[in-house]
Write a structure and sequence with these properties.
globular, 16 helices, Yope Regulator, Chain: A, two-stranded antiparallel sheet, 441 residues
Amino acid sequence: MLDKLFGWGKKKESPEKTLPPIRFGRYSDNNKTLEKTQRWTDADNLFKEKKYHESILTFFDYLRDDALQNVTAVRNGEAVDFHFYQGSKVVRGSSNGKSLYAEVTLAGMPQSSVPVMRRLLEQNFNLYYSRYALHNQSLCMRFDADIESANPNKLYYSFKELATKADKQDDLLVQDFSGLQTIDNSHIETIADTEKEIKYKYLQQWINETVTLVESLDAEKMSGGIAHLFLNLAYRIDYLIVPEGKLLYDLEDTVSKYFAKDEKPVAEKNKAMMAAFKVMAQKTKEEVFPFLFRSRHTFAITVPQPQKTIADTVYGANQNMIWYRDNSYPQIAQQVSEYGIGYCQYNFSLPRVITELYHILMMVVYSDFFKELGYEEGLYNSGSKQFSPSLIDEKIRGIMDEWRKKFPQINFKTENLKYDSLLSFTHSFTSEIEFVNTEAK
């Protein structure tokens, strides 16, 4: 799976030497090949020609991520039946000659609950295309449209709202209301307990290391650096641990409170983040393991940004890093340098080529974590503090070759990378990401 996701299949490795089937980070649908992008235009043209069924099938082909097989759509006579995955939820639907519908179950509700219905009624006002509903003894979300109005643009935003809202609400509803039951999640891919153990270990380790470092700093004078430490910790956990459900909600809540537009000073927000991370570190395996699983997605929960926005974010972080580096705070400097691209990975739907480069950085900086997960190729040895420049160079060039068809001007100057320390490498690596041209053909 990773060979497909990261384009590392055609390497000089022996056939039996494969990477573990582990996915990292948030899903981005900003990953279409030229051929996939063309399918959107094809679907739009077919709709204008009033070939509605063909348009819908072509639209689903555009949505389908061939590496994940996240979308299925088949024509049955005058109908198109489809389903697609979004995290812990499956959206199912069908179209005929007159209309189209899509539905996703949220939770089982054996007995009526006024508090539950009140919450969903309130949340209905925040929906543009879909609505909450009750079907038999199940809470669900539903979208309907006339076939003559089901153009690709409407379908995309309607399905995205339906899928992403449902994926977030199902766990929160079951968590907040004891009378509700988890249903329709048999498609979720469980992961081995050994992988869960490793992720749980590093979840605690990274939090405790960060908290210990923060407690050694002046909370007022170093408030900016402390904020970078906690935020980048959240981005690292999000990408490498890949929490789901309530664990992901808690992480997002910690980050969103920091960026809330209020009058609270940074030091106070840092204190709140520290408290939240301490609570997370105290969670038992029984509390964490249920939210470590693999799932398929069809839509990103974030939106794409121009390359300039990515470049400016990375540049700004590296400029902030300089003070910490020059004033003998190497640990903070390292995290600040990571922060820029980590922020982008967390908040933006990045082109996959940028995510693949970020993944290389993570494999270098957190090499021990990857080694315990079963990655035999060490890009960096934390014990000897030795890099593998040739292997790093090979992987970067492989990524460039993979995406040059879509981004003809793409380039990454590996000769500018520095290998005298992790900080120097991170700074030089992220600085090169600034200039990766993702202007599509």
